[in-house]
# Entry
Amino acid sequence: FLEKNIAVLDSNEDVVCSQGLISHYGPWGDEFEKKITDSIIIKLYKKFRRSFRPFVNSGTSGTFEQRVKTILRKTAYYHVYGVFRTNSLYQKTVREFFCWDWATVLTILKKGNFNLINEVLIELNTSGASDPSITLFTQLKIQKAHKNEYLLPYSSFTIWCALKNFDYFLWLNCIMGVSSILISIISSIKKN
# Structure
C-alpha cells in the first residue's frame, strides 16, 4: 500500500493524494449489487446509488472545476484513506461539522490531482461508524453535529463550500465571467 502510493507521489508532482481501489467486506459489502430477490423499489434505489453515490473512489485530474465535479459525483469520499503529500495536508483537515471528510477532500483537491491505482490496496470493513444500518441521527450525534444539521444534514457543508471557496467563486464570476463578457463585446464591436 505505502510503497505503491509513495512511488506515485514521488514520480508525479501534480498528484497530492494517491490510493488504490477499496474492497468492502462485512455486513454491507455488497450493498448495491443486484439481487434476484430485490423488489422493484430496491432495484431502483440500488441503481440510483450506483450512479449518484457509488461505493467507490475515483482518481481525478484536470482543472479544479473538473476535479471537483468528479469527486462530488463519482466517489464515496474514501480518499481520507489515501496517502497524501504532507504539505497538502498541513492545516487542511476540516472537522467542524457533519461531512468533514468531504470538506477536507475538497480543500486538498485545490492543491492538485488525486491518483487512483487500479488495484485493490485497502480492505474496508463496512461495519462501524459508517455502517449504513446506523441511522443518520446516530451519525449526527456521534459527530457532534450542529442543530441545523438535524433538519438539513448537509447545510453546514454547503455553507462552508460557499464561504471557504468565496475567493474561487469571486474569481470565477467577477474575473473570468466579466472578462469573458468584455472580450465578447469587444469582438462584436470589431466585427461591426
